Automatic annotation (TrEMBL):
Pfam families: RibD_C. Coiled coil: none annotated. InterPro entries: DHFR-like_dom_sf, RibDG_C. This is Dihydrofolate reductase family protein. It comes from the Bacteria.
Amino acid sequence: MGKVVMYSSVSVDGFIADENDEPGPLFDWLLSGDVALDDSGVLKVSQASYDYVRPYWDQIGVTVVGRHVFDLTDGWDGTPPSGVEHVVVVTHRPPPEGWNPEAPFHFVDGVEAAMAKAQELAGGRIIEVAAGDVGGQVLAAGLVDEVRMDVAPVVLGSGKRYFGPVDAQQLLEDPEVVIQGDRVLHLRYRVRRSPS
């Protein structure tokens, strides 16, 4: 089974985007350094951020997102982001008109079905779940092993919450990793499991 990681950049007050789905300065850290994070040459981070993020990206087999994120990104033009092999899209709707059926995107109804499909595709690699509504649902279902946050030094005031619709207390372990980069603080927590 692949480890399930809920992940996103987030403001210090817990938002992944403003009310208009704009991230604002949340991703400035991806452009603030001098070390290329990927082959595009666009993303440049500090050495500390590179040493933390690049090995993580290299372990991701599947990314799980909601239809809203898929639509906002125009489905990454059919190519999964950051070199990920597959994207599982949680949606009640069919793929968009004219969508290439050969693209490595899988449209699944409901988070439990999405996670089952992601485990099937991941081949034991990490399953990344985008924070927000879908991530919050996966966390509430008890299916998240780890929470990763790239905390940007910005207060958005309102917007789309990192944990989405979660309205029940969830306990995390003490942070396993705390790394300061340029314009970002990288945090990693294991999700505390209730004794059975």
